[in-house]
């Protein structure tokens, strides 16, 4: 992990799950991690744990659905460390339901966090990365970004969009600015993602399969692998899913 060492990495959704696991793993390998999420107290706890383990970390309270918050996050990282090497767009929500339940507010929430949040993160860091002519933007999609299932239409649409945004970014920036773009697509993972579900039908489904999820550490390892590759190597997509689920 020598290519991870010393890199300044912003991680959204860092207060739990994949974001927390990624922050701890990258800090363990010498990265300078900037944690962002809405739960400020939880961020402080994780930063303390990283520091106690010998790592370097700071945190900022930020809502990815706010372009202003994301810009302030990038500005903070630049003030503290002078550069941004990696952005991990990890924050996401999944209040899945059938279309005929008409949970329009939840559709809006998924679009705001899962799509706009990714775009706002890119917009916040891209100018600095272009100026330094290097950088890496890692966007968390999902296996639902490759296949739609009943109750997942809107969530899947947001994750298909993440793949499209990531590929467009790669085509525009990799050769021109040496900025890498990677999609990480987790399958069922033991995180708080199911907590946002309000549909009784989907809650029941989640209860049946939640125990089959893999550890967030498995996704963190995939993220670390993509970052650690040499600058001339771009990992476009990695899908990680439980062995036990078809």
Automatic annotation (TrEMBL):
Keywords carried by this UniProt record: Oxidoreductase
Gene3D superfamilies documented for this protein: NAD(P)-binding Rossmann-like Domain
InterPro entries: KR_dom (IPR057326), NAD(P)-bd_dom_sf (IPR036291), Sc_DH/Rdtase_CS (IPR020904), SDR_fam (IPR002347)
Family matches, as CDD domains: SDR_c
Occurrences of domain Ketoreductase (ranges): 7-182
Alphabetized Pfam families for the sequence: adh_short
Family indicated by similarity: Belongs to the short-chain dehydrogenases/reductases (SDR) family.
Protein known as: SDR family NAD(P)-dependent oxidoreductase
């Amino acid at each position: 992990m020598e290519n991870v060492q010393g890199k300044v990495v912003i991680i959204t959704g860092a207060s739990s799950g994949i974001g927390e696991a990624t922050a701890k793993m990258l800090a363990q390998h010498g990265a300078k991690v900037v944690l962002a999420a809405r739960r400020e107290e939880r961020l402080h706890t994780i930063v303390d744990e990283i520091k106690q383990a010998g790592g370097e970390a700071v945190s900022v309270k930020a809502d990815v659905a706010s372009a202003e918050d994301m810009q302030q996050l990038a500005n903070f990282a630049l003030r503290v460390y002078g550069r941004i090497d990696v952005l991990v767009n990890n924050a996401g929500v999944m209040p899945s339901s059938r279309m005929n339940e008409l949970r329009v507010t939840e559709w809006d929430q998924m679009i705001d966090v899962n799509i706009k949040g990714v775009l706002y993160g890119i917009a916040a860091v891209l100018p600095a990365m272009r100026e330094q002519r290097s950088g890496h933007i890692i966007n968390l999609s999902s296996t639902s970004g490759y296949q739609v299932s009943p109750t997942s239409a809107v969530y899947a649409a947001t994750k298909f969009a993440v793949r499209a945004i990531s590929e467009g970014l790669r085509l525009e920036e990799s050769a021109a600015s040496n900025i890498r773009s990677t999609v990480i697509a987790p399958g069922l993972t033991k995180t708080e993602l199911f907590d946002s579900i309000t549909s009784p039908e989907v809650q029941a489904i989640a209860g049946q399969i939640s125990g089959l999820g893999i550890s967030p550490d498995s996704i963190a390892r995939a993220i670390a692998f993509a970052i650690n590759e040499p600058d001339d190597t771009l990992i476009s997509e990695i899908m990680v899913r439980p062995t036990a689920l078809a």
